[in-house]
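Why do we care about 3D structure at all? Because function follows from shape, and shape follows, mostly, from sequence. That is the central idea of this module. The next example makes it concrete: a single protein chain, its amino acid sequence, and then its structure expressed as tokens.
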Amino acid sequence: RRKRQHGRRLAGGTASGGKSRRGARKSARPRTKTPGPPGGALHWARPLLRSLLGRGGRRVLVGAVAVALGAVAFWGGRIGAQGLAAHPALAVQEVEWVGARHADPEELRSLAEVEPGLPWASLDTEAIRFRVESHPWVARARVRRPWIGKVRILVEECQALAFVNVDGQRYGLCADLRLVPVTGEEGDLPIIRDFASGREVDPGTLARGLDYVNILRDLGLQEPLQLDLRKSNVDIISLPDRGFTAEVGAAIAASEAARSVAAFLETLDAEGGQRGTLRLISEGTAVWRAAA
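And the structure:
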């Protein structure tokens, strides 16, 4: 009986919430607590941070972090790019010149300032072009980098449209009014003589001479042509093969005078009848004097 009662007590105690030996062992283990935040600045600053974040400060914080990361990436990439551009493997290996026939090669190289060993990727191509175009022979220049290490400079030289006599010396006159040395390859170009007084070169007179040349050529006069131009008084247009001379008054524009001369020549006979002098006094007024 005692054993039965003892067994009942044990069963009743476990069912009614009593603890078994395993549960007793677990409850007997000491409980450890996670230590809280240390005291000091962080402890009293936590409420302030919570209040800032609660007032929209989270966006400000995220934006500041993004700006900082962007700045680090930008300067890091820039420093890395500069270091990569200065690497010897990306240096200029070859400089090729195309189209330079009359310009001195040494003068062009001195103006370009591009030598093997310079950083190829960081070359200022616009500055190189500007310096090369300052040469008297160069009308236009282009700078290309076709592949790593190579620089190609394409040069378009000035083409003389007429000869100009300056102080007894003959030069070639280009479309942009620059004077270049005579090379002997120009052919039979119009000659502009005595266009300046003394040694002074007048750009306005040069431009007037080119107006005569371009319009007369466009109107079909491809024969030898001579122009005696001065800053004032009368311009003289001569066609030596025909024996024809036109004297243009100062009040008449070069374009109008050239068209008047071409139109008048069409009214004359082909042989012999074109010898003489045409005086263009004003617009619409002219006097023809045939040679005897």
